[in-house]
# Entry
Amino acid sequence: MPSRVRLKPHLSFDDLKTCYRQAKDTVEARRWHLLLLVAQDWTVKQAAELVGLNYDYAKTIIRRYNGEGPDSVRNRGKERQPPPVRSLLTLEQQQELRQALQERPPDGGTWSGPKVARWIAEKTGRDWIWPQRGWEYLQRFGGTKRSS
# Structure
């Protein structure tokens, strides 16, 4: 018979039940449910199967709860910030592009996404910039296609 895990008494059984029932986040609710079942002397394996969690992940949740307390049940994934968007151009290059868009393109005609992309590629030393990125910069700095 597998050994049963014991939860540290951070919260009473009734408090665990309340946390489970009041959890608005589904990830947190599953974690509270797991803890509630383990508090009722279920094995980790049985509880993990019932709530639909991987056994190793369930052990991690219990280990965190025992070590850190109720705050460890929080869904930290919601707090993560996406990585900052890296601009293709430095601020100085962006200013240059703004000025360039006020004049005719080097080949005459009008500014377009592909032309702005080629301009960016030359300024940054890159082999290729997608025309869509050029169009985005054209919209941001030029507003519309320009011809003189």
Remarks:
- The chain is about 55% helix and 0% strand.
- The helical segments are 13-22, 26-39, 44-51, 55-68, 91-101, 113-124, 131-142.
- The two ends are 84 Å apart (CA to CA).
- Residues 13-79 form one domain.
